[in-house]
Design brief:
With about 525 residues, this protein is an alpha/beta fold. It has 14 helices and 30 strands. It is globular, with a radius of gyration of 27 Å.
């Protein structure tokens, strides 16, 4: 050991350097090192049918995938053959489509309950739920993945701002209707959530979801279970793999031990119990291609007369260069094509993309690169890919600058409703509740038609549909007008009229009071 003392006014600093004393390796340690050079036991099973043999009736099954990206269809196909399996509780972001994803188990009538974020894309499931023939626990997407992650990390419950002051907190979304559906009342009501304030903000308590079995699809998996996902194939896969008592992975490629870089591993082998080779092909739910030049020109003429493009064009003016932006499905996806020259933004998609690019050409089409609307997209240079838990940490934490969402209704206080019509429509919450959960840090813009198809106003004093978020929207853009929302005082301010609209028309079609902005009032005189 060597010591060096350095004097400073009023103190003495002592630096101590140690020369390690080399000891011979013990016999026990040498024996352990020798054992570690032997090939570890492989977790690879030759048959998916055999791999699913320990699934039991009534189990909670965690099913990875978003849309059809990362869906474990090989394992699900094997489970369908098990005629003894019924009464499953299936946990997934979606309810599958056709004969893919949970659609397989719905068609075979093996599911009794689904815990999901956006199940309404499956019309079969939506009809079953509305008729009282299946149970549904509707859960915000970010909350769903966090509930899964929490159990895998040994956390029984947590508080989140997502869903506060909505039907999720109140337990107002029925888990199951009586036989015959909505008109016959509720058999199993929703669960009311405990709430609490932290630093002046309201949060609700969500409990972890424990899984009995997890079915995951990954890209490359080595023989001891280390997993690497490909692009948006990850989504819920990481959280689910770490959660269940029995995790079974179907791999696009099974590779030898040591062939994967330790830096590349998404799920360490400690979480994986069985591995099978994926034999089902990858599918795409919505093939969406870039328009050709001639189609683009034709589309431009249609766009000029389509008020959706007028709304998107105005919304694009709210985006600044370098912003991180999340776009909801539908009308918000039209915004990027109207961005001013020189404005480059980073588009975030809640299924795990930052740096989302335009729709692909036919040659670029990739089933593992999709957006939140399940459409095929591309990635920009500098893009990054991550799982759904990471994605919603960005969102809830307020790291997104602007979120642009469609809406069924918005109130003068900035309440927004955009996910269901009780008894009629159950598309699902998706990521919307998470996106509006931190409006002080993420500006929420609602883009929508000013009136519903029946002519009724969509901007109201109070929303009469279940809320997605309370006092969340900062700006409303319609084909007629632009409003700023004073969320604190619950007041609307008209800032501008769209081309061709009049103040009288806006007043007639808006079902609440609003004031004119000082700039607007000056322009009127």
């Amino acid at each position: 050991m060597m010591m060096l003392a350095i004097r400073r006014p009023g103190r003495v600093l002592i630096s101590v350097a140690f020369r390690p004393k080399l000891s011979p390796i013990s016999a026990g340690w040498a024996r352990l090192c020798s054992l570690n050079t032997q090939a570890p036991k492989s977790k690879v099973w030759t048959s998916a049918d055999e791999a699913v043999k320990d699934v039991r009736p009534g189990d909670t099954l965690l099913c990875g995938g978003f849309g059809l990206a990362g869906v474990p269809d090989t394992l699900l196909g094997a489970l369908v053959k098990r005629e003894d399996i019924s009464r499953l509780t299936a946990v997934s972001n979606n309810a599958g489509a056709g004969d893919s994803g949970l659609g397989k188990l719905l068609n075979s009538k093996q599911i009794d309950k689904i815990i999901a974020s956006y199940p309404g894309g499956n019309k079969t499931f939506e009809a079953l739920y509305l008729e009282g023939r299946i149970s549904l626990e509707l859960c915000p997407q970010g909350t769903l993945v966090e509930r899964l992650r929490a159990h895998g990390a040994g956390i029984p419950a947590f508080y989140t701002p997502t869903g506060a002051s909505t039907a999720v907190e109140d337990g107002a979304i029925p888990v199951r209707y009586n036989e015959g559906g909505f008109a016959n009342g509720v058999m199993i009501p929703g669960v009311k959530k405990e709430s609490r304030e932290f630093n002046g903000r309201k949060y609700i308590m969500e409990t972890a979801i424990p899984g009995d079995v997890a079915f995951i699809r990954a890209w490359k998996v080595d023989e001891v279970g280390n997993c690497v996902f490909r692009y948006t194939q990850n989504n819920f896969g990481t959280a689910m793999a770490k959660n269940a008592k029995l995790t079974i992975v179907e791999a696009d490629q099974i590779v030898p031990i040591g062939s994967l870089s330790p830096n590349a591993i998404h799920v360490p082998g400690i979480y994986v119990d069985r591995i099978v080779l994926a034999t089902e092909p990858k599918r795409i739910e919505k093939v969406t291609l870039a328009k050709g030049d001639s189609k683009e020109a034709a589309g431009a003429n249609v766009a000029a007369s389509d008020h959706r493009y007028r709304i998107a064009r105005r919304a694009a003016k709210e985006i600044r260069d370098g912003y991180y932006v999340n776009l909801g499905i539908g009308m918000p996806t039209l915004v990027p094509e109207h961005l001013p020259p020189g404005v480059r933004v980073w588009l975030q998609s809640e299924n795990g993309i930052l740096g989302m690019g335009p729709y692909p050409t036919e040659e670029q089409l990739d089933p593992d690169i999709i957006n939140a609307g399940k459409e095929t997209v591309t990635l920009l240079p500098g893009a990054s890919i991550f799982d759904s838990s990471e994605s919603f940490a960005m969102i809830r934490g307020g790291h997104i600058d602007v979120a642009i969402l469609g809406a069924m209704q918005v109130s003068q206080a900035g309440d927004i409703a955009n996910f269901m019509i009780p008894g009629k429509l159950v598309k699902g919450i998706g990521g919307a509740m998470d996106l509006v959960s931190n409006p002080d840090k993420t500006k929420v813009i609602a883009v929508m038609e000013h009136c519903a198809k029946d002519g009724s106003p969509k901007i109201l004093k109070q929303c009469n549909l279940p809320l997605t978020g309370a006092r969340a929207v900062s700006q409303i853009i319609t084909e007629l007008a632009v409003f700023n929302v004073d969320r604190e005082n619950g007041e609307l301010e008209l800032t501008e009229l769209q081309e061709g609209a009049t103040l009288e028309e806006v007043k007639a079609k808006t079902s609440c009071e609003f004031r004119l902005s000082p700039g607007f009032a000056r322009a009127m005189h």
